[in-house]
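Hey, quick one: can you model this chain's 3D structure?
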Amino acid sequence: MKVINNIKALRECLAEQRMEGRTIGLVPTMGALHEGHASLVRRSVSENDVTVVSIFLNPTQFNDPKDLERYPRTLEADCRLLEECGADIAFAPSVKEIYPEPDTRRFSYPPTDSVMEGAMRPGHFNGVCQIVSKLFMYVEPDRAYFGEKDYQQIAVIRRMVADLGFRLEIVPCPVIRQEDGLAMSSRNTLLTPEERKTAANIYRIMNESRKLGFSVQQTHDYVVGEINKIDGLEVQYFSIVDGDTLADVSSWDDAPSVVGCITVFCGTKPIRLIDHIRYK
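Sure thing. Here's the predicted structure for all 280 residues.
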């Protein structure tokens, strides 16, 4: 596996692959890789001739400097994992390489990027679109792989791809969960062992809510109420939305696909954990 740190070398390497007619898969990451990321890489390796994995902790999508500072950085371990998964290129640039000048581009795709995470983290999805659009321009992939744990992010990126006319396929990949149901996340490493156990209640309660036959409002109130009863957990938001537009629904019949998206603060720090569940 090659580790490439600059854009010029990446483009030159991929131009050779493209001239030989090889398909290219891209897995964008911020590092601190785990089995969830590995599943994306393995899928790309199985579906493309060349797999590029970016490892870049993108500062423009963090509206909280403390959150950026706390985010784990494990480049050496990340590269070992990628090699084991069969990745061909790890693209690990510096911030200066990606942003030699401030990126002043503005992206706006309401309501997809203005609700939930968009409302709670102003500028977050603009930063996501900045970095993902840059990666698409550098790599020119045939397919790009994203984990469904960041459900809203995929919806925003689909809007951006349509808006900017990128010729690639967005491939959403299922959430990888640990045995107790907790969605795998780089942020999980910031939890204490006790907080880690507590966090498993988030998915357990959402999963229980699917079996109760409640209305949308009753389901919302049940999930928020049950999670908030648990010491060490506090719901920031729980939105039950149209799975395509992310607009709120008031009835299960309002959309062919209905998803519950949640963000919960866990622990004394606290650590912000996101997850989602499909209701239909």
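One thing worth noting: The mean pLDDT is 96.
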